Amino acid sequence: MIDPSNYNITVRKGWFDGEHCYEARVAELPDVAEYADSFEEAYALAIDTIEVTAEMLAAQGKAIPSPMIPADEYSGRVTLRLAKSLHRSLAQAADMEGVSLNQHLTNILNYYAGYAQGLEARNSSENTSWQLASQTEKQYKHLRLISTSEPNALEKQYA
């Protein structure tokens, strides 16, 4: 017997198919999306879907995917091999920014992870505007991606 509460369920509020509601998704079951008028109802529908899916798969002699390991189980350490020319280019860019190569790579990866989330938000018709923080800000030398629905929030944040 599975415990559906061990699965990675995310519930978010937004506009889906022209309707303002809550969407529940299960990371281990990427095709599952449940919609409801409240957070609690969306979560309960996701729990029910996990249970029903497990029963249906068991009847077919198949197993439901196991719950994913939480992110805190990862060390955060990655070993990466690069072409020498790319390594040189990245190291030079890090020097120009005044940060370590490790910090520079982390900044780049964070930027693109945020950028991908911004594209996903745009594609899901959410009313969110994404802006890149000014690279000329003295106190914020590194790339940052900011999500806001307020038009001039970036200027207010740095004022």
UniProtKB/TrEMBL annotation:
GO terms for biological process: regulation of DNA-templated transcription. Gene3D superfamilies: 3.30.160.250. InterPro entries: Ribbon_hlx_hlx, TTHA1013/TTHA0281-like, Uncharacterised_HicB. Pfam families: HicB. It comes from the Bacteria. This is Uncharacterized protein. It comes from Methylomonas methanica (strain DSM 25384 / MC09).
